[in-house]
Amino acid sequence: MDTKKGFTVLEIIIVAIFATLALVLFFVQKSNIDAMQRDEDRKTAINAMYYALEESFYKDHGYYPEFISEENIKVIDPALWTDPLGFNLGDSLSSYSYTPANCNEGKCKEYILKADLEKEDDYIKSNRN
Known about the structure:
Number of domains: 1
Shape: rod-shaped
Radius of gyration: 25 Å
Number of helices: 1
Structural class: alpha+beta
């Protein structure tokens, strides 16, 4: 009786196909998880800006600024001004935007803070006063 030990070419091909599919699935899921984490980071930054505007700037000045940056809103971590892709608030490619409204001589009564999210609708906060 002559028996050969080892795998057939068909068995090796099937294992290779399953391994490739598993790797593709892994990287697709990892990409989705990474995008969801970037979205959470964006929400955290917008919330920090919102609370800094409401609880610090507005209470001290009685109005909202025409522009926001780490120079006039100093109570938040400076790293939050940069979105997860490395663009600062105000840059044309930034996923963050601040839009003041109803302004007179640099003093505004309203604003909208927005983050463009990858996996969800835009995250928007507006003035509460």
